[in-house]
Known about the structure:
The chain is an alpha/beta fold. The chain is built from 19 helices and 15 strands.
Amino acid sequence: MGGAVCDDRAVSDASPSRPRPPSVERVLGPVRARLPGADPSALAALVRAVVDAERDRLARGGEARAAEALAAEAVGRVLAFTDPVAEGGPVPPRVINATGVVLHTNLGRAPWPTVAIEAATVAAAGYGYLELDEVTGRRGARFRAAEEHLAALTGCEAALVVTNAAAALLLAVGLAGRRGSVVVSRGELVEIGGGVRIPEVVARAGVRLVEVGTTNRTRAADFEEPLAQGRARLVLRVHPSNFAVTGFAEAADLAEVAAIAHLHEALVVDDLGSGALLDTGAFGLAHEPMPSERLAAGADVVVFSGDKLVGGPQAGLIVGRAALIARLRRDPLARAMRPDKAILAGVAATLGLYRAGRAVTDVPVWRAIARTPDGLRERAASIASGVGSSIEVVALESAVGGGSLPGQVLPSAGVALRVASPDRLAAALRRGPDRVLARIEGDALVCDLRTVEPEDDVLLARRLADVAR
Ligand SMILES: *Cc1c(COP(=O)(O)O)cnc(C)c1O
């Protein structure tokens, strides 16, 4: 701080006409008066930051502002720190997702079901019997509603919820044991996203990798040799979530691999990535593997994501044989991957919707997948009528995203604005206060309504009318 003040004097001596910001004391006075309950040292630190920023602004040629204006800015920032809908507040700015990508990784993947939000709020707001036995009054097992739902939904013997699927994978690979080895098909040595690669995950788990097969073809028989020789005690299958191999390609059948593995007393861990609890085939998509099918085919442990096609809070869901889940639960790593009580409540409430048969109507991700082109076209027509002549209703194709169902699309509908510079329009829509993330197709700015909740249609129409003018 002292250095900055000296520099400032030196500069202003050299150019006496350059405006200087008001002193910290002059700004702090009115701030303290308006926020009487706030900690004075926290306010002083904030005001210093505001005055420093003002000095930079003036150095770049900005207009001088009065102490009162800076005080108002500082007060606004203090209030925004805790206001969930304020600019600069604690929540990433809300955006209307008009991309048609249902699980948009950059937009936080799955929006939570309402009951999950309510459950998390209740769990967060007070004390609860998270690890206490109501009858004995002593420490009990950690709250297990989510895990009971998983057993009912997948037919597993036991389940465990951790922070995310990457953590679940790291934990499950550890079943190979200290200095153990894991066999993986060369066709499945993939990058699962964000630069995370299967060989690196395996290495980080302290386990050696034994590769079998080739990039395009691996047969069940390829697993025979390393397992028969006892070179590995675990087979890892990784779902090719975010790409599709076409042409001369073949992946080993899980049931056949599991039979060979079990013959040699090895385990099979199946990383499904997304893992659907409803049949995607019923919605005109390819069939995404379901955890129940994979367990039935012989996988000993299946891991999948809580915030991909399950459509709830970020979590890693692990289902499988009771003895193995018990081993995972005892692993010290599991403690480092333990979800928060509010997340656990949100996951349980989301899974509860599947058991209640309400997932298609109450899980936003499935609601988006289930929307029909006819219904979307109707909404598009109503939005277009409010915007003007430069807009038209168009047929579109939406993607599920989030590393699910690569290359698969859902027929959709939306609106297109054909303008000279769709990039400029997209940039204007992207900015606040009512942000919209649209798509650009050729010379048009396109909004796919599949991922827009109907209650946002009016807002979307207003924003489009604003930028189209
Ligand atoms: C997405 C994905 C993961 C990681 O899941 P997160 O929930 O992002 O941690 C792991 N494996 C596969 C195959 C995936 O598609």
